[in-house]
C-alpha cells in the first residue's frame, strides 16, 4: 500500500513537531525514518497510523485520503499494523492469544483466524511457543510475537517504532535479518523508525532523514551516504568530516576542484549547488575511506582510538580543521602524517 503525505504539519501547543512534510512511499517499499531524538519520527509514524491528527496537510493510503482538514479516519479503518518498542504484549494472554487478538477484534472467522495464526507464528519462527506466556520468553522472542501480531492482520502497511531498541547488539543483528526477510516475503510496505543509522542503511529501500521536524532528505541509503543533501545529514549519517574548502572554478559535469590544506582535491558536486559567485568557500564531506596515507596534505594527529581492525584517527590541518581517517597502525599523538584525499562531496548549502 502506497503512503503519501502532502504538506503535513503537526503542532503540540508551542512545539511544531513536524513542519510541512511531503513524501511518497511506494507500495512494497521499506522506508526508514531516521533522525536525532525529538526530530519528529514517532509523531510522523503515529500520523500515518491514525493515532495522531494532522494540524495541516493530508495523508493518503493507496490513494485514499485518511487524514486532512476536517478528516480523520481512525486507525482500525486504515489497514495498518503497528509494532511498538515496548512490544505491548498482554501478560495474561498466551503467545497465540496475543497474536490472534487483532483478529478477534476484527471478527475474523475461527477457521480463518487459526490459519492466519499458524502462518504468522511460522513466519517468525515461534510455532512451537504458542502456549507460552510473554514472561517466559526472551526479549527477541517477545519482539517476534509483536511482529507476528502485526503480520496476522490484513494490514498492507507495517509501522515499526524503534522495534529493536530494547535488544542487545547480537540479537539486533539477528532481528535485522528477520525484518528484511519478512519484508521480502510478505511484500508489505514497512515504515521503520530508528535513530540508529546503521539499522536504517541496512534495512531500508528509502531513508527519510528528519531534523527538527523538517524532512532533510528522502533517498536511497546509498544516496544518503554518498550525497547528503545538507550538512545536518552529512554529520548525522556515517562517519566523516565536514571541512570548509575554497572553490575557484565552477564544476565541470559532476566534478569540482576544491582547495584543502593548500592542495587541489577533486570532489563530486551536483551541478547548480555550488555558489555562482567564485571564489567561495563550500562545505565538503570527506569519508574516512576516502583518505589514504602518503600524499601532499600534512596533518597532525590529535586523537586515535582502536576500532578493530582499524585505528580511527583525528588529525588537524594547518587551518585548524579536522579530518577523520582510518589507519592500519596506531600513530603517535602529535605526529605529523601525510595524507591523500581521493574523494569528497560538495555539500549543497
Ligand atoms: N503528545 C505530545 N505533546 C506535546 N509534545 C509532544 C507530544 N508528542 C511529541 N511531542 C514533541 O514533539 C517533538 C517530536 O517528538 P517525537 O516523539 O516525534 O520525536 P522522535 O524523533 O520520535 O524522538 P525519539 O527518538 O526521542 O523518540 C518533540 O519535541 C516532542 O517533545
Automatic annotation (TrEMBL):
| Single annotated GO MF | ABC-type transporter activity
Q: Which SMART domains match?
A: AAA
Tell me a GO cellular component. Answer: ATP-binding cassette (ABC) transporter complex
Q: How does it sit in the membrane?
A: Peripheral membrane protein
* UniProt keyword annotation of Nucleotide-binding present: yes
- Coiled coil spans: none
Subcellular locations according to the entry? Cell inner membrane
**Domain ABC transporter, first and last residues per copy:** 3-237
Q: What's in the keyword line of the UniProt record? A: ATP-binding, Nucleotide-binding, Transport
First-listed, main subcellular location of the protein, grouped into a coarse class: membrane
Taxonomic superkingdom: Bacteria
Recorded hits in PROSITE patterns, A to Z, give: ABC_TRANSPORTER_1, ABC_TRANSPORTER_2
Q: Which family does it belong to?
A: Belongs to the ABC transporter superfamily.
What name appears for this protein in its UniProt entry? Iron(III) transport system ATP-binding protein
Q: What is the lineage of its organism?
A: Bacteria, Pseudomonadati, Pseudomonadota, Alphaproteobacteria, Hyphomicrobiales
Amino acid at each position: 500500500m502506497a503512503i503519501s503525505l502532502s504538506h503535513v504539519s503537526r503542532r503540540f501547543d508551542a512545539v511544531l513537531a513536524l513542519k510541512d512534510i511531503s513524501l511518497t512511499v511506494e507500495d512494497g517499499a521499506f522506508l526508514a525514518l531516521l533522525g536525532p531524538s525529538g526530530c519528529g519520527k514517532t509523531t510522523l509514524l503515529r500520523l500515518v497510523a491514525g493515532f495522531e491528527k494532522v494540524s495541516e496537510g493530508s495523508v493518503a493510503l493507496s490513494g485514499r485520503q485518511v487524514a486532512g482538514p476536517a478528516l480523520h479516519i481512525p486507525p482500525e479503518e486504515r489497514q495498518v499494523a503497528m509494532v511498538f518498542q515496548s512490544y505491548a504484549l498482554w501478560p495474561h494472554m498466551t503467545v497465540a492469544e496475543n497474536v490472534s487478538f487483532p483478529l478477534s477484534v476484527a471478527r475474523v472467522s475461527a477457521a480463518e483466524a487459526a490459519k492466519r495464526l499458524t502462518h504468522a507464528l511460522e513466519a517468525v519462527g515461534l510455532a512451537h511457543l504458542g502456549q507460552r506466556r510473554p514472561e517466559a520468553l526472551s526479549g527477541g522472542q517477545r519482539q517476534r510475537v509483536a511482529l507476528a501480531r502485526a503480520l496476522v492482520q490484513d494490514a498492507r502497511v507495517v509501522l515499526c517504532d524503534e522495534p529493536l531498541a530494547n535488544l542487545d547488539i547480537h540479537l539486533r543483528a539477528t532481528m535485522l535479518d528477520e525484518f528484511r526477510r519478512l519484508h521480502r516475503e510478505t511484500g508489505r510496505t514497512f515504515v521503520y523508525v530508528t535513530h540508529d543509522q546503521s539499522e536504517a542503511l541496512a534495512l531500508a529501500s528509502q531513508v527519510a532523514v528528519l531534523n527538527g521536524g523538517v524532512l532533510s532528505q528522502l533517498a536511497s541509503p546509498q544516496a544518503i551516504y554518498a550525497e547528503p543533501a545538507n550538512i545536518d545529514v552529512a554529520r548525522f549519517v556515517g562517519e566523516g568530516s565536514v571541512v570548509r574548502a575554497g572553490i575557484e572554478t565552477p564544476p565541470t559535469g559532476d566534478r569540482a576542484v576544491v582547495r584543502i590544506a593548500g592542495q587541489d582535491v577533486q570532489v563530486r558536486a551536483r551541478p547548480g549547488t555550488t555558489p555562482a559567485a567564485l571564489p567561495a568557500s563550500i562545505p565538503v564531506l570527506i569519508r574516512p575511506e576516502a583518505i589514504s596515507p602518503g600524499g601532499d596534505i600534512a596533518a597532525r594527529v590529535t586523537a586515535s582510538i582502536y576500532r578493530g581492525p582499524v585505528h580511527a584517527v583525528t588529525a588537524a590541518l594547518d587551518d585548524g580543521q579536522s579530518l577523520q581517517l582510518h589507519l592500519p597502525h596506531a600513530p603517535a599523538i602529535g605526529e605529523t602524517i601525510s595524507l591523500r584525499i581521493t574523494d569528497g562531496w560538495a555539500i549543497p548549502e
